[in-house]
DNA sequence: TAAACATATGAACATATGTGCATATATTTA
DNA sequence: TAAATATATGCACATATGTTCATATGTTTA
């Protein structure tokens, strides 16, 4: 015998209702892609570095022990999802965090890290 | 001729300094894994559904057009990263969002979605 | 205009990941 | 204890992803 009352499954109607409250396939897909882009040490490092201010590819190359093409590929991924933006300055391509959303996300990560001792 | 002053690359010292401000490899790895878990329509749907309250596997199965084993696999992934937790209630395994961090994350997604019209 | 520099891209390969199927485990009910 | 129910797991396969190498593009300087 158990103290806990047994769980009562919701009927199909309530479940259908629940389903309506979640984002559409399209929206989920987009969210997915964004998280996918963040599932990469390289791209996370880039975002953390850029969160301090704009940097060109050369600087990122100096900071990260990763080849230039690999960095460019990562930047493209981040660019395509509008997580970073480029501005051409002379011969350099200066990348920066796209907007406050992304800044918030990075801050969130920092907090998460610091809270886990 | 251009109005913009050309970008000036930071020297290696400043770059080394920048590097110190980003999370350690270990922490990055953990963040990576979390985002990795979120890069899945199935797992995102599960999280959105659970954000309304605890649900057992059976209910998730009724809501999602996905096989029971696939759902269990997804739940395991989420469990291992402590994004969801289980509580056994009789013969049911009731899953719920692990903590406020995760709730915040899901809310963030909802906001993101609603702000992009 | 040639050379040097900064960045981007494409193809290819190795590895990671998700899903289905079969099946194992655990709990409850008869 | 047998049968039914609820969930978990292992394996295998198809697909997705990241990285490297070679090379293309674009910009500046000599």
What is the chain-wise order of helices and strands of chain A? HHHEHHEEH
Largest sheet of chain A: 3 strands, antiparallel
Q: CATH homologous superfamily of chain A?
A: Winged helix-like DNA-binding domain superfamily/Winged helix DNA-binding domain
Structural class of chain A: mainly alpha
Structural overview:
2 copies of one chain form a homodimer. The two termini of chain A are 40 Å apart. Chain A has 117 residues and is mostly helical. Chain A has helices spanning 12-20, 25-38, 41-50, 57-63, 68-80, 100-115, and strands at 55-56, 84-89, 92-97. At the A-B interface, helix 1, helix 2, helix 3, strand 1 and helix 4 of A face helix 1, helix 2, helix 3, strand 1 and helix 4 of B. Chain A binds a DNA duplex (30 and 30 nucleotides) through helix 5.
Give the key terms.
3 strands, Arc Repressor Mutant, subunit A, 117 residues, 3-stranded antiparallel sheet, homodimer, mainly alpha, DNA-binding
């Amino acid at each position: 015998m158990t103290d806990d009352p047994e769980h009562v499954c919701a009927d199909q109607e309530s479940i259908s209702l629940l389903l309506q409250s979640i984002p559409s396939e399209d929206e989920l897909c987009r969210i997915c892609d964004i998280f996918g882009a963040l599932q990469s040490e390289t791209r996370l490092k880039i975002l953390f570095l850029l969160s301090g201010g704009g940097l060109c590819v050369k600087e990122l190359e100096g900071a990260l022990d990763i080849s230039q093409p690999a960095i460019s590929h990562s930047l493209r991924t981040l660019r395509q999802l509008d997580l970073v933006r480029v501005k051409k300055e002379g011969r350099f391509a200066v990348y920066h965090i796209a907007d406050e959303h992304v800044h918030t996300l990075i801050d969130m990560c920092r907090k998460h890290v610091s809270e886990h001792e």
